[in-house]
Amino acid sequence: MSADRAPLRRALERGEEEGGPIEFKTRLTRDTHLADGRMESLAAQLRHRVLSGDGEATYVVGVDDDGAIAGISPDAFSESMDVLSLLADEADAHIEDVETWGIDGGDGEGLVGVATLREGAMLDREDDEHVVVGTAGHVDHGKSTLVGTLVTGERDDGEGGTRSFLDVQPHEVERGLSADLSYAVYGFDDDGPVRMDNPHRKSDRARVVQEAERLVSFVDTVGHEPWLRTTIRGLVGQKLDYGLLAVAADDGPTKTTREHLGILLATELPTMVAITKTDAVSDERVEDVEDEVEAMLREVGETPLPVERHGIDAAIEEIGTVVPILRTSAVAGDGLDDLDTLFEALPKRESDADAPFRMYVDRSYNVTGVGAVASGTINAGSVEAGDELLLGPMADGSFRDVEVRSIEMHYHRVDQASAGRIVGIALKGVEESEIERGMALLPRDADPEPVREFEAEVVVLNHPTKIGDGYEPVVHLETVSEAAIFSPEGGRLLPGDNGNTTVRFKFRPYLVEEGQRFVFREGRSKGVGTVRSIDT
Ligand code: GDP
Ligand code: MG
Question: What pTM was computed for the model?
Fold first, then answer.
């Protein structure tokens, strides 16, 4: 839900006018608006609106013809956007952006939204021009501020001025996509960085996406203890290219810092550390904290590379085998040029676009007229409308035959999507209530094995004593979050040590493969692991 109502107010004030670029709709439905005859005339109307706006039209949905706000349910809004994207397709235009607002009062479910339509087909960027960075670190260590400063070029005031740009829920909330993560994006073209004036403004984001040749987006995970689950999902459930760990120069590394570092490394992310807030402490303190960070990295078997000593080019070249450490200040501006240089140069990690299709389901929802939709990030391969797939395992271990009705990416209907994309896949052959988080979608000929128990190698990051037989943490693997029982080899696992254990899901099987990484957690104890064998 967007906090800034200005775009809505502007559209409402300007109003619908003959020959103008603004159109009001209460809602659009498949049954009524895609019917023969009706669809053609609506597409013609849309084309007309786009042309009168010099290639850009605004559709306000959830209002009466006279502009009075009605508000429609999230499902009705989703369907309206589905229909609008089909109309746009027909009119050689695309939905560039959608903003929604909740209507106060009523049954609390009402939405009104503004869709911006643009002439021509949608821009589909090659994956290798878009790098995704996951941020981590102790709460208040300056993650949001650093990212806010990078994407806007605005210095922070030291009182959270820049961060406030980012700490809002993205509008995907209503669609059930990436609800817990805030996104920020900036880019680069031949002349250097392309930044946003105001990350709140969706049109600004669209401009950056349009102008930049290379995009860098940030998944700002939340470091606060109650949110650890979100953090884990942010790190493990998304296809990230790099990790950025913030360590405040005043506090230095904390327990949370160490845990987050462990998780970043467990997901095999090439990682960098930003020492933040260097303006707030003495030079000696910065040196000391850098020493502490170096020690912390060595403890977990990593090689630190302080950019202060070795330069940013060495960091670009060697990240992945070393962990670069940068000294930064969002207030004084230290280190920001180096970060720009780094993000402009870092290559996209190899994606598994040629592998067989696989997607772990993150959420499911129902769209009127479409039916069950499973959303998530495509782990590997690609998927097309019409593909015949397997969904499962179900609680009894079976896999269900399903068919891809349609694919949606951020309000755009697409014919095909590949690894790394966040998509909603509408499925034939299954009810929404049967789809659960943690299930996987696979090719029909995959012959998958449901796994109830597997052997793993684990590291206990934080536990007061030894972990014994019968230890019962929640295991987070891909989008699976499920209680499991550990039976360690030799009867125990010690904090800080590598060990082997059998892991048995308490309630039902999942799709698990050798080599997959996972995180486990029980109360305040946490650890990371790798699946070694599924033949137990
Ligand atoms: P997060 O919880 O890690 O996302 O931390 P925030 O970005 O919200 O920052 C927490 C507080 O630290 C805010 O009040 C910021 O203004 C402040 N802060 C962040 N970066 C800097 C910095 O470089 N220098 C100073 N002096 N303060 C900063
Ligand atoms: Mg934050």
Answer: 0.61
**Which pLDDT belongs to residue 169?**
38
Q: Using CA atoms, how far apart are residues 102 and 282, in angstroms rounded to an integer?
A: 47
Ligand 1 pocket by C-beta < 6 Å: which residues? 137, 139-145, 156, 158-160, 163, 223, 246, 276-277, 279-280, 329-331
What separation in Å is there between the alpha carbon of 140 and the centre of ligand 1? 6
240: burial class by Cβ within 10 Å (0-12, 13-18, 19+)?
A: buried
Of 499, 502, 474, 498, nearest to 486 by C-alpha is: 502
From ligand 1's centre to the CA of 376, what distance in Å? Answer: 31
Pair of tokens at residue 296: 């912390």
Q: What is the structure's pLDDT at 71? A: 85
Rounded distance from Cα 163 to ligand 1 centre (Å): 7
Cα(143) to ligand 2 centroid in Å equals 5
Please determine, for residue 238, whether its predicted confidence score (pLDDT) is greater than 60. no
Residue with CA at minimum distance from ligand 1 atom 20: 142
State the ligand closest to the CA atom of 168.
2
C-alpha separations of 374 from 390, 407, 424, 429 in Å: 13, 10, 6, 12
Question: Quick check: 351 pLDDT over 90?
Answer: no
Domain architecture of the chain: domains with CATH: 3-119 (3.30.110.20), 127-345 (3.40.50.300), 358-443 (2.40.30.10), 453-535 (2.40.30.10)
Whether residue 368 has pLDDT greater than 70: no
pLDDT of residue 530: 86
> When comparing pLDDT for 114 and 238, which is higher?
114
CA distance 26 to 61: 5
